[in-house]
Design brief:
about 85% helix
Length: about 375
């Protein structure tokens, strides 16, 4: 059990290092991107690209909350970017699934487990984006809610996982900076180290979990978790609210699915809960600003996720769509592993980048 905890700790450190590396590369660029459009469709893709670059929807939404509070951006312009951020945040678990690429069957399950989050969030956008553009469904409801909470002051909460992992992340980052003065080289080295730790941690997590707890865990999880989807939504919500990162919650699920301990059907409600739990960070940030527009944006993020869950999860036919698409992508991963790399690069970086570039050229 100590070995499992050590591997999980290193896994979390690797996710933190990856986030630090991407933020080092892309945070200023992401902030510049977010400021640059009033076209809602392009705003959606800006949210995807910006969040893929900084590896955190919490970071993107907090930046947006700050911009709205300072008057740099309107609520109308912010809402599509928030929706795009929900898709962009799923890139982390997809990158984690690539850690299993050397073992074909594991890779199939890992891709299936991570892709269900992608397709669920894409489905939410397909449903709610047109409704928001036509009727301002989310922003008007959020504006009404924000009036109730307008005078609440900021509440600061620190993730216990950040407290546990930050010292080692900070030590590695500072050590690299001592040897490399170049900003780019520092973050390239940081990304390389994070990927090495990630691959090693995933390999040993899967190996140890299989030998120690696979049979007992499978019985418990099948009997309890598999039959209580609503409880799993709440579990994902609470875990994500505590650790303040949906990426950590969903990424932790990937090796469990890859090893066969969890099925994608069990993971699906946890990822939906993680979507709701991740909105806590932006809500707290908005309360700290005391600005009514900023609070409206934060509640829009919350409503987007909770309405998405309420629309899709209770209806069996709708619930099956993200599962079917995730399993199809997993089958593709089994046959042609390189296609998953192409999917990640295209969906999260190349396609949004091209569309944003075209919109700039047309101005």
């Amino acid at each position: 059990m100590a070995a499992v905890l050590a591997c999980v700790y290193l896994f979390l450190v690797s996710i933190g290092l990856m986030g630090a590396a991407f933020k080092g590369f892309g945070k200023d660029f992401a902030q510049h991107l977010i400021q640059t459009t009033s076209n809602p469709f392009i705003g959606l893709f800006i949210g995807i690209l910006a969040t893929s670059l900084v590896q955190s929807s919490s970071t993107t939404t907090s930046i947006i909350v700050g911009m709205v509070a300072s008057g740099v951006m309107t609520v109308t312009n912010a809402v599509p970017i928030i929706m795009g951020a929900n898709i962009g945040t799923t890139v982390t678990s997809m990158l984690v699934s690539l850690g299993h690429i050397g073992r074909r069957e594991e890779f199939k399950r890992a891709v299936t487990g991570s892709a269900v989050h992608d397709f669920f969030n894409m489905m939410c956008v397909c449903i709610l984006f047109p409704l928001e553009m036509a009727f301002k469904l989310l922003s008007k409801t959020a504006a009404w809610m924000s009036n109730i909470f307008n005078n609440i002051g900021g509440i600061k909460f620190t993730s216990p996982l950040k407290i546990a992992t930050q010292p080692l992340i900070h030590f590695i980052e500072e050590t690299i900076k001592k040897f490399h003065t170049s900003h780019s080289i520092t973050y390239i080295m940081l990304l390389t180290i994070s990927m090495i730790i990630l691959f090693l941690a995933l390999y040993y997590i899967v190996k140890i979990m299989r030998t120690l707890v696979a049979q007992r865990a499978e019985i418990v999880l099948n009997n309890i978790l598999g039959k209580h989807g609503v409880l799993m939504i709440f579990a994902g919500l609470i875990l994500t609210a505590v650790v303040q990162s949906s990426s950590i919650t969903t990424s932790l699920m990937v090796p469990l699915v890859a090893s066969g301990i969890l099925t994608v059907e069990m993971v699906f409600p946890i990822t939906m809960g993680a979507n709701i739990g991740t909105t806590v960070t932006a809500i707290l940030a908005s309360f700290a600003t005391g600005n009514i527009s900023a609070i409206t944006v934060a509640f829009t993020h919350f409503l987007f996720n909770i309405i998405g869950v309420c629309c899709i999860y209770p209806i069996k036919r709708l619930r099956k769509i993200p599962l079917f698409l995730a399993k199809s992508l997993g089958n593709l991963a089994f046959k042609k592993r390189r296609y998953i790399v192409i999917y990640v690069l295209t969906a999260f970086f190349i396609l949004p980048g091209i569309l944003i570039l075209i919109s700039r050229m047309m101005k």
